[in-house]
Amino acid sequence: MRSWLINLRKNMKLTQSDVAEKVFLDRGYYAQIEHGVRDPSIETAIKIAEVFQVEPTLFFNEKLYNPFYHVTSKLPIIFAICDLDLRYTWISNPSKDFSFHNVIGKTDFEITHNSGVEALVALKKRTLQTEQISSELITFPLSKGDTTYLIYAKPIYDGDILSGVATTSVEFHE
């Protein structure tokens, strides 16, 4: 089941029929994609991803061998991409406190709110405003206790147009 896709659709107040119509699919086929019964073609994944403004690779992460995931999965490193509204469009290796499925399509403040999140959002906004790589040590209250990350934020572009911000967060120990 692609619960992240269902959550995105419901958050946008769309029905399965609405999405299917936008991407020229039969509603039943789209429902099978949502429920993980069928995998979309690459072209269909791109069309659906455009509706929700997410990365089309999300459709294949769970099925394909992903060397990037295998290299980073046990490391205290988080990679993420957000659009200009700071909604997550892709994330790899999130903290154990957060499910990948509940992060995609949401902003940090829609996920949780604390001083660490406020600093992270400020870092992302500064990076978008200056279009420069920024970094900062930020501490978050997590279930395992306060955890500090060294976070790098980098503007990302679609051609010459600023399209979002990518972050790399490495758990920091003094």
UniProtKB/TrEMBL annotation:
Q: Which domain of life is it from?
A: Bacteria
Q: Write one Gene Ontology MF term.
A: DNA binding
Kindly give the Pfam families that the UniProt entry links to this protein: HTH_3, PAS_4
Gene3D superfamilies named in the record:
lambda repressor-like DNA-binding domains (1.10.260.40)
InterPro entries listed in its UniProt record: Cro/C1-type_HTH (IPR001387), Lambda_DNA-bd_dom_sf (IPR010982), PAS_4 (IPR013656)
Domain (HTH cro/C1-type): give its ranges: 5-59
The protein here is known as Helix-turn-helix domain-containing protein
Provenance organism: Paenalkalicoccus suaedae
Q: What is the lineage of its organism?
A: Bacteria, Bacillati, Bacillota, Bacilli, Bacillales
